[in-house]
Amino acid sequence: MKHRVPRRRPFFLAFLLPSLLAAGLFLAALGDVLQYSFRTFIPGSLDVGGFTLENFLRIGRPIYLSVLLDTVTISVLTALFTLLLSYPVAYALVRARRDWVRTLLIILAITPLFTGEIVRTYAWILVLGSNGFVNSLLKDAGLITAPLSLLYTRFGVTVALVQFSMPVMIILLATAISHVDRNCERAAANLGAPPLMVFWRVTLPLTMPGVISGTIVIFAWTMSAFSTPQLIGGGKVLMISNLVYLQGLSTFNFPFAAVLSLLALLVAMGSLGLIRPAIRRLERRVALH
Description:
Distance between the termini: 61 Å
Largest sheet: 2 strands, antiparallel
Number of domains: 1
CATH topology: MetI-like fold
Structural class: mainly alpha
Radius of gyration: 24 Å
Helix content: over 70%
Number of strands: 2
Order of helices and strands: HEEHHHHHHHHHHHHH
CATH architecture: Orthogonal Bundle
Strand order of the largest sheet: 1-2
Shape: globular
């Protein structure tokens, strides 16, 4: 008679349970926000009324469309400039020959992650202010006579968001660059391709999955930015998170704030959904070449 060995439960279920619990809580909260978006706003009251679709129709008004357009524009610019500034740092981080250079780049890259967002935002206020570091430097150099308007502008908000996003982008790009087979670059160089051509035709295409992933992640992350546009924008530059705050906590219009929150979530999730098909197309193209 054979002795039956009791089947053990897969160990990964124990690790998966916290994630499932967090996902359940997130879906429950999202469901509550969804039901609020279909409720009628009662001015002067925290209570909401019955079913309505008016909250969704309000999104079409020019003032809200302009905020959404500004949010998307700032997010796209932040993602693009973050990519341009982060790629050389990530490349140097991976390809540095000396350990102390690599260590220094790692420290400089990830140090901002250990600083609070509010602290970094106030630091940028001191840098971009009328009497801040940038204007003072330009005045001392005789390049300007009156201070430049850097604070409370889209430019100032974008600059701060780029600096906040660079550590994450550098990590993602460094991972992609580290997986590039150096033999492919050596083969191209042996065939007579100059270094710039090797980078443009070999290295960059092989790292495009990381480039696309990093760009989409930063775009989605910037879509939810709040404190940076709130403080550096000074009320003159509104992003969708700031509009949600104004509608929900200033006028107590929770139904419309819920609609705006869902809109931002859909745009962010939609951008993340573009990663997989884009990466697959790039992988096929690289494989053909």
